[in-house]
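Troubleshooting log. The previous structure file for this entry was overwritten by mistake, so regenerating from the original sequence record. Sequence copied from the archived sheet and checked twice against the printout by T.R.
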Amino acid sequence: MRMRKKIIIWTILCISLLGIYTTFIERNLLIVKRHNVTINKNGKEELKVVQITDIHLGQFYNLDQLEKVVQKINALNADIVVFTGDLIDNASTYDEIYNVADTLKKIKCRIGKYAIYGNHDYGGGAVRYYDDIMNKGGFKIFKNEGISILFKDKHIRIFGADDGLMGNHNVDKTMNGINNKSINLLLLHEPDLIEGYSNYPVDLVLSGHSHGGQIYIPLYGPLKKNVLSEKYTKGFYKLGNPRGTKIYVNSGLGNTKVPFRLFNIPQISIFNLKI
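Regenerated output below.
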C-alpha cells in the first residue's frame, strides 16, 4: 500500500511539473538553431540567412519577448532576414498593434529583410495593418513574386508565395523568372504547399505555420497538426526532384489558441548557405 501511494504521489508530482513546464516555462524560452546547407558543393562563399516565423503577438507572446528576439538576431550578423508569416495572433484584440513596427525596425542585416503573409496576417482584421507594419519595420513583402540579388558575384533569387489558406496563392506567378543557374530560395508559409513547386529548380524552402504541433511527442510527432502542415511538420525534408529541393519547417516563436509548448522551444533559425 505504501509503495502504491508513493507511485501515485510521484505520478501526480511529475504530471504537475510537466504541466507547469509545458504551460509556463518552455514557451518563454528562446534558442538559436544553426544549420549548414550546401547548395553548391564547390562553392566558396557563405550566405547567412536568418528566419523567424509565427510570432503570434498577443495573449501568449508580447513585445518584450520580441525585443529579445531582435537582440539575438542582431548578434548573428545576418546577410538576409526573412519572416515567413503570422505576426499577430488576433489583430482585432491586440492593443499594441501600432508599436510593432518600431521593434521590427531594429532588426539589422547587410542585404535586406523580406516577409510573406501567413493566414493570421489576413484574418482577424490583420490585413488592414500588416503591409504598413512590415514596411515601416523595413521588410519588403512578397505576394507571389520575387527579387534578384547579387552577392559576391553569385546570382540569388528570393521568391515569396502568398498565403495558401486566406490569400491568393499562385505557384506559377510566384516562380516567374526562375532559372536553373541562379540560387533559388522560396518563402512559403504553409509547408505542404511545396508539392506544387516540385517541378521548379528551388534550392531551399523556408516555411512555418506548423509550430511543430506546439506539443511534440518523441517517436510520435505533433500531437495536433495544422491544415497544410500535415505532411511536413518540423525540421528538414528533401524532395525527390532533380534539384534535390530542401524544405525547412521552423516551429516558430509564439503560440496560438493554447499556451502549451513541449519539445518545441521557440526558435530563431540561421542558415549558413554554402554557395
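The domain at 2-274 is CATH 3.60.21 (Purple Acid Phosphatase; chain A, domain 2). Archived copy saved in two places this time.
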